[in-house]
Amino acid sequence: MSPIAVHGRARFRHGQSAVALSVSPDGRWVATSRADGVDLWDAHTGEHHQGWDAHTGHFVSLVRFLPDGALLTLGNDHRLHCWTLPDLTHAQTLEGVGTHLAVSSDGARVAFLDRAGAVRVTDLADERSRTVGGDEIVDTWCHFAFSPDGRGLFVGTYDGRFLARYDLATGARTHTLARAEGPDAQGWDGFAFSPDGRTLFAATT
To answer: CA–CA separation, 89 vs 84, rounded Å?
Structure first.
């Protein structure tokens, strides 16, 4: 039997649980990740543009647009891929990327916890990398945020030991903003700066 009427349109029908979402700087595209791939959607119509197995069968935990419109995807294969739009050409891969990614406001650098448990900052242009914080962060679950001026990296440990600022030129800690003490210490679970860059908001678990 034919349907009597069909109401509405199939918009943003993901089909699976969306793990992560990011909107392109020009507002044209929406990228979503799922357990086995990435999908790209037209932000204005909601129509599915393309889906692809960005990490060859691996879980995709993060999608993030850069200011120039390129798309970063992070999988549990410990690879960070960069794709150009709209043709989705693979442009770059960083190996050994662990968890919790932060991107500088200009899109030039990324910070992440590597597979050895160290916080690493990498320049995307030449892939030069340096460790931030040394042994005091190793093997600790962390969240990161670049300072708006691009000169510092704020690191908060999930075990609540500290929330601190590190100088990206030297890799050394310059300020300890808060320290949780005692058996009920709460961990730091995410950061966001105010639009003027003068206030840092930090969430605890």
So the answer is: 5
